[in-house]
Amino acid sequence: MIGLLIIILISIFLIGSTSAIKFRQIYNPFTRTLDYYHTANFTGENITAGSIIVSGNVTADYHFGNIPWTNLTNYPVACSSGYAVTEVGDSNICTQFAEYNFGSNNFNGSGNFNTTGNITAGWGFFNGNVGIGTNSPYSGLHYQGDIFYLTPNAGAWSND
Question: Can you tell me the distance from the alpha carbon of 126 to that of 143, in angstroms, rounded to the nearest whole number?
Fold first, then answer.
């Protein structure tokens, strides 16, 4: 009986080519299944017919190489004003992006412009002057409004 089992196991170990791509079948005694292994690249191979039927998980490490430009440009889409393409697939998804409402004024410069929440006090750059809380600054930096700060010795917020 043990001899027959050994012969069956050896036969299973030796079986193993499928199609033009060579697979190695190995019986896994722990899972009692046949495992299929392919240890080389599929370079130049095309699987156009047939199938590999799997019951369980498939783990793969793959590289597709070059993708033709037509595949990348095959989904022409035009998003409405204020929208941008955020997802490309069988159909494209356009998502509305945040508006900063600069109106007809330009916002030029270098570096970052980061915000969180709303800027409610307003600010502006007029004739070389910067205004915070005013649309008509009369000096290099003109601030109009309350100043909210943490007092060093009390450790509490103050509003002047």
Answer: 13
Between residues 81 and 48, the one the model is more confident about = 81
Strand pairing of 24-28 and 33-37?
A: antiparallel
Tokens of 51: 């199938």
pLDDT tens digits, one per residue of 24-65: 556 666 666 655 555 555 444 554 444 555 555 555 555 455
CB-based burial label for 124 (10 Å; 0-12, 13-18, 19+): middle
In whole angstroms, give the CA distance from residue 140 to residue 117: 26
Main-chain dihedrals φ then ψ at residue 30, nearest 5 degrees: -80, -35
The pLDDT of residue 96 is above 70: yes
Q: Rounded to whole angstroms, how far apart are CA atoms 150 and 159?
A: 9
The pTM score is 0.22
- Burial classification of residue 63, based on how many CB atoms lie within 10 Å of its CB (0-12 exposed, 13-18 middle, 19 or more buried): exposed
User: What are the residues facing 35 on neighbouring strands?
Assistant: 26
| Helical (H) or strand (E) element with 85 | strand 83-87
